[in-house]
Every structure is written in C-alpha cells, then in structure tokens.
Amino acid sequence: MSLKAFHVLFVLSSILLCFGFGGWAIHDRVHGGNLLEFILGLVSLACGLALIIYFKAVLKKLRHISYL
Amino acid sequence: MQIPHNVEPRPDTGLYNAKLGLWLFLASEVMLFGALFSSYILLRVGSPEWPMRQLSVPLGTLNTFVLILSSISIVLAWASLKERDFGRFKLWQGATVLLAVLFISIKAFEYHDKFTHYYVRLQDGREMTGHLEGQPFNLTLAKLKALPTPPKELSFTPDAHEGKRGEHGEPVRLELAQITKLEAFGPWRNTFFAIYFVLTGLHALHVIGGIVVLGYFWGPGSRMWRTEPERFTNRVEVGGLYWHFVELVWIFLFPTLYLL
Questions:
Q1: Does the pLDDT value for residue A5 go beyond 90?
Q2: Which of residues 30-59 of A touch B (CB under 8 A)?
Q3: How far is the C-alpha of B119 from the C-alpha of B190, rounded, in Å?
Q4: Which residues of B129-148 are buried (b: 16+ CB within 10 A; e: fewer)?
Q5: Can you give the pLDDT at residue B170?
Q6: Do B21 and B177 meet the contact criterion of CB atoms below 8 Å apart?
Q7: CA dist., res. B161 & res. B139, Å (int)
Q8: 8 A C-beta contact, residue B68 and residue A51
Q9: Backbone angles phi, psi at A67, to 5 degrees
Q10: Helix/strand/coil for B103
Q11: Which residue ranges in chain B fall short of pLDDT 70?
Q12: How high is the pLDDT of residue A33?
C-alpha cells in the first residue's frame, strides 16, 4: 500500500470523524452542553465538507501514482 | 556492492525494501495499540462506573485538526518530490515538522493541566476537585507535610458543579489538618487516567519519533536528493506512511478518550 492509498484511508476516516464530532457536539448542546464545544462541532462539520473537496482534488493531483 | 530493491520494487512482493520493512513494523504497532485499545474496552465494560468528560474537548479537537493538516502537508511534500520540486518539498516537510511540534506542545499543556488539577478529601467526608493557589505541580499530602514549615491552610478553588463545565466556584480555605487525601489527576487517580496516560503517552512518544525522522529528512537527510533522488523519494514516502499510522491512531484515540 502506497502513501497515496494510506492517505485516502486517512482522509476518509477524518471525514467520518469530523461529521461524527459535529453530530456529537449538536447532541451535547441540545442536552445542555457548552457553547465552545458546539462551535467547534460546527467548525468540524465545515472541515468535513472541506476534506471532501480536498479528497477530490488530491485524487486528481495524485492520479499518476500507484495505490501499491 | 549494490543492495537490490532499494528503489525498484521486488517482483514477488511488489514493494521496495524500505516499504516492506515499514509495513512489517506497522503490523507490530497495530498489535501494540490494538492490545491497549482492547484493554481499554475490557476495563470500561467491566467497570460499574466510568468517569466521563474528564478531558478538554477543545484542546483535543485542536490537536485533531493539527494532525489532519500535517497529513495533508506530508503528502504534498512527497508529491513535490514526485514532481521534482525540491524547494516545495522543503516547505511542506518543514510545515509537517512544525505541526508535529505544535501537537506535542498542546499535549504537554494538557498534561500540565492534569498535574495541577487536584482531588481533595476532608476528614468530614467531603470530596472536592479543583485547583490550588499558585498551581503547584503534582503536590501530595506527604510532600506538603514534609516541608520545613508546612502551611496551616490551603487556598482551593473548586470546580463548578455538573452543567457548568469550565467554570470555577469561589476559592475556599482548607485547613491542612482537615485534609486526609490530596492528589493530582495523574495516572494513579483512577483506571481512566491510567489508560489515558498510557495510550496518549505512547502515542506522544511516536509523535516525537516522527519529529526526529521527518526532521532528519527535512534537514541533513535531504542531501541524498542530490545523489539518489528516487531513493530519497522512497524514504520520504516511508516516513509519510509511519506518520499516517500515528495520525490514524489519534483519529481513534480522540473520540474514545475525549467524547465517549
């Protein structure tokens, strides 16, 4: 597995984490959690979206490099 | 003598030497961290009660963003070498090392915060958590009593009650004679902190190892680019694979320890 393949795996995991943390922060806020964590959750959701855009861009940039 | 498969992959494995060696090493690392994560799960499900929300979520989140950024920068460093742009490689590799140093600095701040946060039990059975005046590091009752002139009382700022996280109450004066237990939130505090310090401490050691290796490739090790550019590019890729493993471990550590 090349660095490209591992990076794809890592970015997908990070996207899941960003959306998971965003969901956790919203749930926590609804149940009386603090505002800073809620804001960080929203930032995390935005980062998840940014990572999706980055994911497409990096696949295009590294298209000539093998996954092995 | 020329060592074969330093640059070109072996026909049977499809990997060059360093990549094969690195994956074997990472397999052993998976077993190490896997055993610790399994220990965490077994300790947690076997415990009648488990402390929740003991760590700073904002600091953990910040560190997660720092590591995600460093994964991007290290891939861009490697891609720059593939495109024969050494100047850009230096830029991205340097950024990766700086982000790794930032991660360790934030982690050190978090550790310091835990070693200056105290649990106090009084003779009347009252228990409190909070901070001592002057933020002493890892103080114990025995250390206090061993001082040439032990203080008669301590100024203690208790934590806020549930629902007011991050806020503090008014400072109170505690007589030393009334205190039966005083300890910082170190690994001895409870099972959660024991496994927290083991997991994050081991991870931090891996980050420090990464700083050394990636820093070497950025600095003196980069001389290889002039004589063996393909081999140097492979070295940077292997360093990047290790760094991604360290980051992936954190992607599991953050929700496990900070959120759940």
A1: yes
A2: 32-34, 36-37, 40, 44, 47, 51, 54, 58
A3: 11
A4: ebbbeeeeeebebeebeeee
A5: 84
A6: no
A7: 23
A8: yes
A9: -80, -15
A10: helix
A11: 161-168
A12: 86
